[in-house]
Sequence to fold (142 residues):
Amino acid sequence: MKKLIVSIFFGTLLFAKGMIFSNFDKAVEYGRNSNKPIAVFIVSSSCIHCQELLNNMKRDRKLLDFLGNNFAWVVIDITRQRVPSMIPFSNSTPFIVVLNPNNLETLTEPIKGAVPNNLLYKYLSEILKLYYNSIPYQSQNF
Fold:
C-alpha cells in the first residue's frame, strides 16, 4: 500500500511544472544543464512521516509549481535506492537537502523530519536566493 502511495505521488507530480526525478544522476544532469539547484527528498515507503510529507506536498499546487520551476528535484526512496555518498544523510526520513548542481555541495543544513508546506516553501525560497546571489550576473525572479 505504501509503495502505491509513492507511485500515486509521482503520477500526480507529472502534472506539476518542471521535472521530478527518481534517478539522482538524471536530476544532477538536468540541474547542471538548467542551472537549477538540486532538491533531494529522501523518503522511505515504510515511513508514515514521509507519506504525510508527500501527501501534503501533492495537494499544494503553489509548492509543486515553485519546486518544478526553480529546482531539479529528486525523490529517493531508500527502500529501493542507495543514497549518494556526497549527501550527508542521517538515516532518518524524511530528509531534505539542496545541492549546488555544479559541485554537489550542500547549500545549507538539511531538513530532517516532516515539515509543514509553508515552512518547506520558506526554506526552499531562502536557499534559492542564496544560490542565485552566489552566481555573478545571474538574475532570477522567484
In short: Confidence is low (pLDDT under 50) at residues 11-16. Helices lie at 2-13, 24-34, 48-58, 61-70, 117-133.
